Amino acid sequence: MQDVRIVQDFHPGASTASGFNVSYRLGKLQQRGILVGRWLDFGCADGGYTSALLAAGADSAVGIDTEGDRIAEARTNYAGENKLSFVHNEDATLPFSDNSFDGCFMNEVLEHVYDEVTTLRELFRVLRPGGYLVVISPNRGFPFECHGAQIGPMKLGFPVPLLPWLPPRLGQRFMNARNYWPSEMRALVALPGFLVASPDFVWPVLDFYRWLPGGLRQWYLRHIARFDSMPVIRRLGVSVLLVAQKPALAPSRA
Hints:
Blueprint: H1 19-32, E1 38-42, H2 48-55, E2 60-65, H3 68-77, E3 84-88, E4 101-107, H4 116-126, E5 127-138, E6 144-145, E7 149-151, E8 154-156, E9 160-161, H5 168-171, H6 182-190, E10 195-196, E11 200-202, H7 214-222, H8 224-229, E12 239-245
Parallel strand pairs: 1-2, 1-4, 2-3, 4-5
Antiparallel strand pairs: 5-12, 6-9, 7-8, 10-12, 11-12
């Protein structure tokens, strides 16, 4: 666990709320039937996924982010939508009371927070007993680091091959975000008391880095569910998806 818990500042990542990526990722949650009630979108950026949570079945959604300009953009984008709200918060403590939410969506965010365990404990606190936490974060099994890298003064703004496979104590000297083996991420999320299901995986939809020619990319997207379900191959997905649950009789934790 010590190798996973590296307390470090990372710059917030870019929004991944684009096109097929939204329906693909939230579709996995719709299949589980958990998108009901009030949801928190932790690290909501410009609110794209917050709005999509509502469209996918949530009764209401709150987006929260440390970046004030992103929250301002989200409020502008979704002005007049009374089932959505957006909160700017830079503190480690969330500005919500215990047991406030039925679910929390944390999409490509855990790898950027200063202290993962402190963040997860806060999410445990604000979830109601029986509520769900969804965490999607970079998979160390994927052979490219999609956040690029920083090597001294040199910035690499493209997916860097093999960097995710370096030991964290070495790799994070150059990386712009953490990454996780599925077992590491599962153990980390379990620390505050969450019950964690077996990991799922998310494949890249190539919206930002279109490595494949147009026709081949369309074929890949049509068949992406096959890659999701193929033994061994599925574990090479770009991100790990974990669904965790706060025990139904669990006390809140500060």
